[in-house]
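Here's a chain:
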Amino acid sequence: MRHLPEPFLALVDQLSRLPGLGPKSALRCALALLRWPEGETRRLGTNLLALRDSLRLCSRCNAVTDTDPCPICSDPSRAGDTLCLVVDWDSLLTLEDGAFYSGQFFILGGLLASREQSAPDSPELETLDARLAENEVREVILALGATVEADATASFLRNRLAARFPHIRITRLAQGIPLGGEVKFMDKETLRQSLRYRQDLE
């Protein structure tokens, strides 16, 4: 690709950093963008700028939103005494799409292994501590999946929360989730049953 124009290579490099896109896929995407009508390409650029300008992370749950707090956190009909901890926004959307959980959420932003063991000092956990210090939450549900990294993260969180907030019940999804499974890839019925029959974390 050394003979390609520098602006094109810069675009391919940026696209290749997106999840699921390697260098070859990024090259195909860049070529497709060149074939788009100019108006469509400019509209994409405008939408990308608007994405950064109008969206932010919710200060209470870390979800992507255009209002702070987000619609879920500001919904008075949702139970404020249960807080479901998920790894990422995809997992939140999957649980929310099932319409069987009516409490609040909190996005951790990653598991211990993916953070290279930096979780104890993460700003997300500081935000979580502040949220729990409000003394409204009575139960924290760990909806992290059934991977080795999820188990390690669950163990870390259980110990941390039990030491800092001993009055809060800590549960995890029932083991209807297969070993190695991630919440965002589960079907709605499996998630519904896992949430309904969640277990205390001892």
Remarks:
- Strands lie at 56-57, 64-65, 82-86, 104-107, 139-143, 169-172, 199-200.
- The chain has two domains: 6-54, 64-200.
